[in-house]
From TrEMBL:
GO biological process: mitochondrion organization
GO CC aspect terms: SAM complex
Residue stretches making up the Metaxin glutathione S-transferase domain: 229-295
Region Disordered, residue ranges: 1-22
Organism for this UniProt entry: Aspergillus versicolor CBS 583.65
InterPro entries assigned: Metaxin_GST, Mito_Protein_Transport_Metaxin, SAM35, Thioredoxin-like_fold
Membrane-spanning intervals of the chain: none
Name of protein: Mitochondrial outer membrane protein
PANTHER family in UniProt: METAXIN RELATED, OUTER MEMBRANE PROTEIN (SAM35), PUTATIVE (AFU_ORTHOLOGUE AFUA_1G13180)-RELATED
Domain of life: Eukaryota
Residues in Thioredoxin-like fold domain copies: 82-178
A Pfam family annotated for this UniProt entry: GST_C_6
Length: 299
């Protein structure tokens, strides 16, 4: 795989951010019972860990570890996390069978979700991180490496990894109503029933999103974020045109999965958005909406 845009997890810290990781490790100098609660916090990049042991360990097929809940895992439902959903969708699109396992970053050997535990070779137990999933899939089913087939791949992927991702961060984590209705429910509340612990987790989560946005701007300009997302959606809509899949592929591929990871979650009513400006912007492009509807049929 040639792209390195997947080196960040969501939520919402780049694994190579050593400064942030050190700050978090310092923060984790707390009593063990509290630390066990913080182990579920989805922003943190952790040192490598042993593979988790759980009820899914007896399964013999490929296992993809993602952010989801137990009910979603049983149904094979789309993950509520864009980075996880991207790879979940991609593996489905190229025809690889797998089970979904609910997880969190601390359970990942690399500190980042998703990762895959392959069924074969038997007994190796070697996990495959997201950055190597495309290479593994190509070797398994001999699908194409799309980046080598179209020089526009990386250019348009950057729209997702910068403009749409930034608007997503703001809408999910920094819009107060959305944070309480969506992010708090998905990432904070499952970690603890203790109000004080939840409050600290929520503050850390929002600050990490704020820090990420301030890496590219001196201040957070909501109007600018929305305008850039609107331009990105327009560019993607133009790229797709009247085709079924991006780059006129006969079957959906990695780029389709990358787009779907955002468009599905933006349009998914079950996410429980209170304010969804991204839905308003995305809905102006009927071909992107129909693209999402077609790909949802894989789930």
């Amino acid at each position: 795989m040639t792209s390195n845009h997947d080196d960040h997890d969501i939520p919402e810290q780049r694994p190579d951010s050593r400064r942030d990781a050190r700050r978090v490790r310092d923060f984790f100098s707390v009593p063990a019972p509290v630390k066990r609660v913080f182990d579920r916090f989805p922003l943190i990049t952790y040192p490598e860990n042993d593979l988790p042991h759980h009820a899914w360990s007896t399964r013999r097929g490929n296992q993809l570890f993602v952010f989801t809940d137990a009910a979603g895992a049983r149904r094979g439902a789309p993950s509520f996390n864009p980075q996880c959903l991207k790879w979940q969708a991609y593996l489905k699109f190229v025809g690889i069978d797998f089970d979904i396992v609910p997880s969190n970053n601390h359970a990942s050997p690399s500190g980042v979700l998703p990762f895959l535990l392959p069924a074969l070779p038997v007994g190796t137990g070697t996990p495959i991180p997201s950055g190597k999933l495309q290479k593994w899939a190509i070797e398994e089913v001999h699908c194409e490496e799309e980046q080598q087939l179209n020089v526009r791949f990386e250019v348009y992927l950057s729209l997702l990894d910068t403009r749409i991702r930034s608007a997503w961060l703001y809408q999910l984590y920094l819009n107060h109503d959305n944070f309480e209705a969506v992010a708090q429910r998905l990432y904070v509340n499952p970690s603890s029933t203790n109000f004080a612990v939840r409050a600290v987790l929520a503050a850390q989560l929002q600050q990490a999103a704020r820090d990420e946005l301030l890496k590219s701007s001196a201040y957070i300009d909501t109007s600018a974020l929305e305008a850039e997302a609107a331009e990105a959606f327009e560019a993607l809509s133009t790229l797709l045109g009247d085709k079924t899949h991006f780059f006129d592929r006969p079957n959906p591929g990695l780029f389709d999965a990358s787009v779907f990871a955002y468009t599905h979650l933006i349009l998914d009513q079950k996410m429980g958005w209170k304010h969804n400006r991204l839905e308003q912007l995305l809905s102006q492009h009927g071909n992107l909406v129909r693209h999402r509807e077609r790909l949802l049929g894989f789930f």
